[in-house]
Specification:
By secondary structure, this protein is mainly α. The chain has one domain. 79% of the residues lie in helices and 0% in strands. It has 13 helices and no strands. The protein is flat and about 50 Å long.
């Protein structure tokens, strides 16, 4: 089987440059973009707003997924915002996974160090948990909103989990927290426009659901300790 070394070298250099640009852009956007800037930018896009929003979700790893989901609820409304957030989240899970899988741990960590990041100390633990629990560990990390969305996309690519298992599990189990964030943005926008007092109750209910998701490991541990011994 013959290989064109020049072509492979060009592809490799192009891939490395694309990934570097992706990571640098994420770091830059994280430092300079404020939530209100994000809202205004998407709103000013007119009929292109959905495409611009989904593009930000995919190509702006430095912007937290929670901030994007909240913005979608404020801009597009509850269900339309949730739909765009789900599409954006699904597509955003793909490039980082394959970037890290193609680059490998050492080269990826070298590129991340250029923008002040690192994955050292995370991969081994993730690999052990993925091998032990499989898709359940992906579900666990996606369900709890404390785990950074973009970092998980990178780290799971360095494990031996199958792509479709990763993608399908991630998509379904990120949906509850995503909905809560979109609802917060939607209700907050309505409250700012002079909505009823019930909106504040709904916002606190959404925040409460996020807190419950964040505390899920402690709740499970308590239940096991309390009733598992019987």
């Amino acid at each position: 089987m013959n290989f064109d070394l020049k072509l492979l070298l060009k592809v490799g250099v192009g891939l490395a440059l694309a990934i570097t640009a992706y990571l640098v852009a994420g770091y830059f956007l994280k430092g300079v973009i404020k939530p209100e800037d994000l809202l205004n930018f998407v709103k000013d896009s007119g009929p292109w707003a959905p495409i611009v929003f989904i593009g930000l979700f995919i190509f702006s790893p430095g912007i937290p997924a929670s901030a994007l989901a909240i913005a979608s609820g404020a801009i597009f409304g509850l269900w339309t915002g949730y739909l765009y957030s789900m599409i954006g989240a699904l597509l955003a899970m793909i490039p980082p996974f394959w970037f890290s899988r193609l680059l490998g741990r050492k080269l990826l960590n070298r590129l991340l160090s250029m923008v002040g990041g690192s994955i050292e100390g995370n991969v081994e633990k993730f690999q052990q948990n993925v091998e032990k629990h499989g898709w359940r560990y992906i579900a666990f990390t996606r369900l709890i909103p404390l785990f950074p969305f973009s970092l998980l996309n990178l780290v799971f690519g360095l494990t031996r989990i199958g792509f479709w298992t990763y993608l399908v599990t991630s998509f379904f189990f990120v949906m509850p927290a995503l909905f809560a964030f979109v609802y917060i943005g939607h209700a907050g926008a309505n409250a700012a426009d002079g909505g009823s007092g019930w909106l504040y109750v709904k916002v606190f209910a959404a925040l409460g659901s996020l807190i419950l998701l964040a505390l899920l490991p402690q709740i499970v541990r308590f239940v096991k300790n309390r009733w598992g011994r019987k």
